[in-house]
């Protein structure tokens, strides 16, 4: 009887372990800093983050420049489908922008006339500005 009980316990343990190993792992949020596709050191900017209308849905304007950074998940435009940024940043609609200090990491080199693709590692000192549709800000930069 002890042997049968031991075999039963061993079988239960093996079946239990097999069930545990079949549970799919929860996918981790992709990382920005330390991402193998990042090509240079991360840096901080003060900017305005808003929804764009192109393939790149998140645009980050470094205040005081005439450039936009495209927030993506990698170095090609197809990576814009899954941009990497802190999940604490939320947009209610396309009628708001978020100003703040952003730490960004570049996926592409700086190139005149081209949107540099980056991910956002962190954001702080955030201020949300909302406007009505007719008063939507033009891309004045």
Give the fraction of residues assigned to helices.
Answer: 10-25%
What is the general shape?
A: globular
Rg is: 23 Å
In round numbers, the mean pLDDT is 81
Ends apart, CA distance between termini: 82 Å
Coarse structural class: alpha+beta
The major sheet is characterized as: 5 strands, mixed, barrel
Walk me through the structure.
With 141 residues, this protein is an alpha+beta fold. 15% of the residues lie in helices and 30% in strands. It contains 1 helix and 5 strands. The chain has a 5-stranded mixed barrel. A hairpin with a 6-residue loop joins strand 1 (43-51) and strand 2 (58-62). The chain is globular, with a radius of gyration of 23 Å. The protein starts with a helix and ends in an 11-residue tail after the last strand.
Highlighted features:
141 residues, 1 helix, alpha+beta, globular, 5 strands
Could you give a short description of this structure?
Helix content is 15%, strand content 30%. It has one helix spanning 2-22; strands at 43-51, 58-62, 69-71, 96-106, 116-130.
Topology of helices and strands:
Layout (H helix, E strand, L loop, with lengths): L1 H21 L20 E9 L6 E5 L6 E3 L24 E11 L9 E15 L11
Parallel strand pairs: 3-5
Antiparallel strand pairs: 1-2, 1-4, 2-3, 4-5
């Amino acid at each position: 009887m002890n042997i049968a009980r031991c075999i039963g316990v061993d079988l239960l343990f093996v079946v239990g372990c097999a069930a545990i190993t079949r549970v799919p792992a929860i996918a981790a949020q992709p990382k920005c800093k330390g991402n193998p596709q990042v090509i240079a050191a991360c840096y901080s900017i003060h900017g305005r983050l808003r929804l764009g209308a192109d393939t790149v849905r998140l645009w980050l304007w470094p205040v005081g420049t005439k450039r936009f950074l495209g927030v993506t998940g990698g170095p090609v435009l197809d990576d814009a489908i899954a941009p990497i940024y802190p999940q604490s940043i939320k947009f209610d609609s396309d009628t708001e922008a978020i100003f703040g200090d952003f730490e960004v990491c570049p996926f592409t080199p700086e190139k005149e006339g081209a949107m540099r693709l980056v991910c956002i590692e962190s954001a702080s000192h955030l201020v949300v500005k909302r406007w009505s549709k007719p008063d939507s800000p033009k891309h004045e930069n």
